[in-house]
Amino acid sequence: xxxxxxxxxxxxxxxxxxxxxxxxxxxxxxxxxxxxxxxxxxxxxxxxxxxxxxxxxxxxxxxxxxxxxxxxxxxxxxxxxxxxxxxxxxxxxxxxxxxxxxxxxxxxxxxxxxxxxxxxxxxxxxxxxxxxxxxxxxxxxxxxxxxxxxxxxxxxxxxxxxxxxxxxxxxxxxxxxxxxxxxxxxxxxxxxxxxxxxxxxxxxxxxxxx
Length: 210
Hints:
By secondary structure, the chain is mainly β. The chain is 5% helix and 38% strand. It is built from 2 helices and 14 strands.
């Protein structure tokens, strides 16, 4: 480290008997390095909390969320989505009301006086195995009413039946069948709703008027 010499500058002022001595001390410690390298200074873009590199490294990578292209489908249109572990396709093939069942449902205990069916198909188009059943499927009415499955199967229920219990679907396989619902005979649902685990919101198919 170098220091500059200390010089005394004498300033004489006329008509006065006093002499003012001004001392100026110049040192290299307080100034820039003589080499001009600028050591000790922080240049723009240096690594730190505000740098792009640090921000990118600190950013957390969010896990993929379930995705699908549309929210509402027509009968026969295939909905495709990724639930994070599997790629799934689902479709409402037909809605039929009324249909023959073992006997008319009880409107008091079952919520309807005739039987209706939603014929659906679900496929595993890639990824891990998953299970399907009737229970994620329901009927939605304009007045807000929802009708869920009864879990009934066998006997005189419309065939082919969609599984009422969990059925494993391997990659490349599909499951298809009819799901029965006890419904009021004087009105039709607005939508068939599919709400499997892994989706942030259900998939709907519009039910056409009779």
